[in-house]
């Protein structure tokens, strides 16, 4: 049953039981409805004698399902020394949402900055790390909806953009690039965050 069908049936049931006009029921519904999670968008009509109706039970089941998926949180960590030193995860998944922390081109075994002279190669390396984190949490680059890119030098913006298009051009996520950033290491030219939604 779709949301529209559920709401139509709920209105009809209430109208038959209580003799209220469609407009009165609509106003009452708008005032007394409880809206569920964003993933399982649903409503529960709080009108007498509807509590045991198939409509109410169906919507309530969806509402509870939506709540349950947000109770569990998964973390993805790497041997990047900054994660342990600063106390954060490379990426976190909660429900359908995945958030990848700001990622730079750090060698996880040595802690050295890879490709210190090339923003383009750093960006390529960063996207490899981001994709690895996404896959570690059961999603992929195809689910990325937003990228936030921070670059130290204006002259590197074109090369960073080229690397982004090569990695995500087929996905086409929303993206922001900010120039003039400063990072914890002078050799770092680029840092990138990613958000994904997997359904």
From TrEMBL:
It comes from the Eukaryota. InterPro entries: RutC-like_sf, YjgF/YER057c/UK114. This is YjgF-like protein.
């Amino acid at each position: 049953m779709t949301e529209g069908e559920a709401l139509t049936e709920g209105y009809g049931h209430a109208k038959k039981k209580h003799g209220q006009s469609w407009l009165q029921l609509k106003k009452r519904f708008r005032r007394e409805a409880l809206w569920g999670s964003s993933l399982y968008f649903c409503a529960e009509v709080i009108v007498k004698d509807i509590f045991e109706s198939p409509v109410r039970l169906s919507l309530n089941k969806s509402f509870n399902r939506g709540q349950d998926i947000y109770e569990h949180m998964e973390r993805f960590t790497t041997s990047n020394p900054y994660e342990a030193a600063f106390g954060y995860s490379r990426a976190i998944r909660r429900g359908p949402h995945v958030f990848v922390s700001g990622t730079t081109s750090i060698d996880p075994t040595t802690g050295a900055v890879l490709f210190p002279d090339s923003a383009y190669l750093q960006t390529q390396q960063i996207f490899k790390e981001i994709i690895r984190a996404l896959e570690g949490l059961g999603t992929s680059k195809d689910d990325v909806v937003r990228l936030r890119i921070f670059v130290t030098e204006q002259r590197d913006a074109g090369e960073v953009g080229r690397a982004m298009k090569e990695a995500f051009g087929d996905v086409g996520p929303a993206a922001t690039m900010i120039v003039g950033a400063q990072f914890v290491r002078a050799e770092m030219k680029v840092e990138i965050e990613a958000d994904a939604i997997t359904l």
